[in-house]
Design goal:
The chain is of the alpha+beta class. The chain contains three helices and four strands, in the order H-E-E-E-H-E-H. It has a four-stranded mixed β-sheet with strand order 3-2-1-4. The longest helix has 18 residues.
Length: 121
């Protein structure tokens, strides 16, 4: 990892910690946390009051086996999967945590797809 990429990771983490001071998931409104890497997307619905993950979806799932995982289409699938699994866990409203990433591209695709799937935020 070069020095430049290390700096960008630290800056993202700093943004994430700054936002997390205000975004807290409760049992009534858990937190929908999104993480984006170059090749994958991960989305979790987390109840911060009990520190438990209620639902999880990512491009690591078997559904994505053999397909591209670092694009907007895969992010849309992750959004619809997290909405479906959130509904199964009894979650209808969430607080969106973009993880320090810009609300653009794949992160926005996950959010829009989760909204279309029935999650309210």
């Amino acid at each position: 990892m070069s020095d430049r990429s290390h700096v960008s990771v630290k800056r993202r983490q700093k943004r994430h910690f700054r936002v997390r001071k205000f975004i807290v998931g409760s049992s009534q409104r858990p937190r929908l946390a999104v993480y984006r890497s170059n090749q994958h997307m991960v989305a979790q619905i987390i109840d911060d009051s009990t520190s438990t993950t209620l639902a999880f979806a990512s491009t690591y799932d078997a559904v994505f086996k053999g397909s591209k995982t670092g694009n907007i289409d895969a992010a849309k699938k992750v959004g619809s999967l997290i909405a479906e699994r959130g509904k199964e866990a009894g979650v209808s409203t969430v607080v969106f945590d973009r993880g320090g990433f810009a609300y653009h591209g794949r992160v926005a695709a996950v959010a829009e797809s989760a909204r279309e799937g029935g999650l309210v935020f």
